[in-house]
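Researcher: Re-running this chain for the archive, since the previous output was lost when a drive failed. Same request as before.
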Amino acid sequence: MQSLSVVLLQGDSGVAKFLVSALSRSFSSIHQVNSLGELRSSIAKHRARVAILDMEAASISDVERLTHDFPGASIVCTHRLADEEMWAAALSAGAAEVCPPSDTRCIIRAALGTATGSHPAAA
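Model: Regenerated structure tokens:
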């Protein structure tokens, strides 16, 4: 289990609960937040190495700002639709990976890989 902090912003409360449970098997510190402002505060407060961001709660420019303002944190984005154009834009904006929220393996692999400095393969 990694002792690194993870911050999670997920718009769907059921998906958020599911992801917190799945992430708790790999990370000891998971902080669920309800807004982009809380995400930013929580990354700073907990010195989070990974932020998991629901793209339905943020924009591509938000991803750019997060990667700029928190260069030590990796941004793993989730989006429920396979929108290749949006996914490519998120990666270009600095996201480490984009995964469907139901694909916990992809999310955990991306979170673990980016937190430890290795880069996961695209899903």
